[in-house]
Amino acid sequence: MLRRIMVVFIFAMIAIPGFCFAHFGMIIPDQAMVVDQKKAEVNLTISFSHPFEQQGMNMEKPKQVGVLFEGKKQDLIQALSLTKVMEHNAWKLSHKVTKPGAYVYYMEPTPYFEKAEDKYIIHMTKVVVGAFGEDEGYDREVGLKAEIIPLTRPYGLYATNVFQGQVKVNGKPVPFCEVEVE
Length: 182
What we know:
The chain has one helix spanning about 1-20; strands spanning about 25-30, 35, 40-50, 55, 65-70, 70-75, 80-85, 90-95, 100-110, 110-115, 120, 125-130, 145-150, 165-170, 170-175. By secondary structure, it is mainly β. Strand 14 and strand 15 form a beta hairpin.
């Protein structure tokens, strides 16, 4: 029994720090929910970073950036401007929120080559911002090549809450696939 505990402990000590080196494509809004019509502009920062280490990585201009609202997509790529996050190239934009509902902001970055895995990787990224007390529409599909469709509301979750979603690739469900969530 003691031997099993030691094996599990050693495995955890080796495996857990590896998770801290993960890097992610991120869309960070300056407000999670728009409640004041006088402050109805959502400022978004789009970056590629190692959040646990507080280290940024340079991000090339994304292939696509947009917002899905009431089933309609709006291209926001022209609104992007270069900025810095943790001293590395990142992007920012502002978007005016006009009506109540869930605004699903999304981004598809330029693929990057990951030497450690010997392949190109694309971090499809989405974030939902509710506006004026309404959050219907958080579960709408953007139509990215790969995305997670929320089955439960994806924000306002606390410790011990559960998030559930369906992974889709090219619009088709992918059961039992491995997913990294941050």
